[in-house]
Design goal:
Layout: H1 16-29, H2 33-50, H3 52-63, H4 69-76, H5 78-92, H6 117-120
Length: 121
C-alpha cells in the first residue's frame, strides 16, 4: 500500500436494518463487514465519477474556481483532470491577435453559388 492507501478508521451511524442486512450478506459470502463496505463505497465512487452529469458539475466548478486541480484529480481521475486543465487554459487564453482577412478571391472566380429558399423571397 502507498501512503495514501493506508487504512483509516471511519465512524458513522447507519440505520440498524442496513447493518443487519450487511451482516447477513457478509456472513453469506464469508466476508468481513468492512470489506463489503469498502467494496460498496468503491463501486459508488466509480459509478458517480464516470457519470456525465457528475463530470459536468466538476468541470463547471473547476472553471468557476470553486475546485482546485488536486481535488478535481481525486474526483474524476488524473486523465480527465488533465483534459479539464487544458480546456480551462484554452478558455482563459486571450484571443489570437489576427489581422482581418483581406478581400483576396480564394476561389479565383471559380466559386459555385447555390440559390436557397431565402434567396427566392
Amino acid at each position: 500500500m502507498s501512503g495514501s492507501d493506508d487504512p483509516r478508521r471511519v465512524h458513522f451511524q447507519s440505520p440498524g436494518y442496513l447493518v443487519d442486512r450487511l451482516d447477513a450478506i457478509a456472513e453469506l459470502f464469508e466476508k468481513d463487514r468492512t470489506d463489503l463496505l469498502v467494496e460498496a463505497i468503491h463501486e459508488y465512487i466509480e459509478d458517480t465519477a464516470s457519470s456525465e452529469s457528475f463530470q459536468k458539475l466538476v468541470a463547471t466548478k473547476y472553471y468557476d474556481e470553486q475546485l482546485k486541480f488536486e481535488t478535481v484529480k481525486q474526483l474524476v481521475g488524473v486523465e480527465t483532470a488533465q483534459h479539464l486543465r487544458i480546456l480551462k487554459a484554452d478558455l482563459e487564453d486571450e484571443p489570437l491577435d489576427l489581422a482581418a482577412p483581406d478581400n483576396t478571391d480564394v476561389y479565383e472566380g471559380d466559386a459555385t453559388t447555390v440559390e436557397t429558399a431565402a434567396d427566392e423571397r
